[in-house]
Specification:
Elements lengths: L1 H7 L10 H8 L6 E6 L6 E9 L5 E9 L3 E10 L1 H13 L5 E3 L2 H17 L8 H8 L32 H4 L12 H15 L7 H19 L3 H20 L3 H16 L6 H9 L1
Antiparallel strand pairs: 1-2, 1-5, 2-3, 3-4
């Protein structure tokens, strides 16, 4: 009534934006979102969990297994209560052998979109249910913060280690949980393992020192041959960037920088395998 009286007296009242439009815009973004991803293993596999609220109540959760170079290989979704969802994330955090980390929802969407593109490039069908799930996930995308084109998001927030800075010994890298499962694909190292077994079964007796030397020679030769696979090197460099982002989100900047620097070394090396590559073959 007060506004009506002022208007009758010739006082112009500034109109506020239509609250209905504002509410409609806000309704596209849920009031609850949560994303957790695992570290990527040596074979390029990682797990992703992404949850959001539903209207009028409840939670919606997706779980995906991604494989670098192959895309989304497994995908499931489910509706549940808030309590059930809390239990799911608690169980994930309690897994002793799984290195997982909460990440921005936009980054989780970026990982899914990157994997989806790999499915499309490889002409591999997307898992059942993913296309429908995108209707729930698309409003969560942050294209400005996590553009699909260009460098990995970690490159904008983590710098490589300078040449005059102290470096970590590569072997100690495998003491960190995100690298516990950093081994080569079995079919890549199997021929060299077989070569070592055959050399041990030969009639020429070898002492322990000679056996170690023989094993080291086979590892180095195998690493050099495997290192010539440029696609594999690109994949491993990308995996290092993924783990670098995980370390950054966990607040471990020294490990994040180490991962980014190792990724650079794998990409820029000539024909000789990097120390990380040799350790991966030996660790396998």
């Amino acid at each position: 009534k007060a506004l009506f009286r002022l208007k009758n007296k010739g006082v112009e009242i500034e109109k506020l934006p239509d609250a209905g439009v504002h509410a409609a815009q806000r309704s596209t973004y849920p009031d609850y979102v949560h994303a957790v991803v695992s570290a990527v293993d040596g074979r390029g596999q990682m797990l992703l969990w992404l949850a959001r609220s539903r209207v009028p109540r409840g939670r919606y959760l997706v779980q995906a297994r991604l494989h670098r170079g192959q895309g989304i290989v497994e995908f499931t979704d489910a509706e549940m209560s808030a309590k059930e969802l809390r239990n799911v994330f608690h169980q994930i955090s309690e897994m002793p052998t799984l290195a997982s980390q909460e990440v921005p929802v936009g980054y989780a969407i970026w990982l899914l979109e990157r994997a989806q593109r790999e499915n499309e490039l490889g002409e591999v069908p997307l898992p059942r249910g993913f296309t429908h799930a995108k209707l729930m996930l698309d409003p969560l995308a942050e294209a400005d913060a996590f553009p699909l084109e260009g460098a990995h998001p970690v490159r904008g927030i983590v710098n490589s280690i300078a040449k005059d800075e102290k470096r970590m010994e590569v072997r100690t890298l495998f003491a960190h949980r995100p690298f516990w499962s950093w081994v080569m694909d079995e079919d890549r190292v199997a021929p060299y393992f077989q070569e070592f077994i055959e050399s041990m079964e030969s009639q020429v007796a070898l002492d322990d020192k000679q056996k170690k030397e023989r094993l080291q020679q086979i590892v180095e030769n195998g690493a050099k041959e495997i290192f010539q696979d440029k696609k594999l090197r690109e994949r491993i460099a990308g995996q290092l960037e993924d783990n670098g982002y995980i370390f950054h989100q966990a607040g471990d900047e020294s490990m994040a920088r180490e991962c980014v620097t190792l990724a650079d070394e794998v990409q820029m090396a000539a024909d000789e395998p990097t120390p990380l590559f040799v350790e991966m073959v030996q660790y396998s």
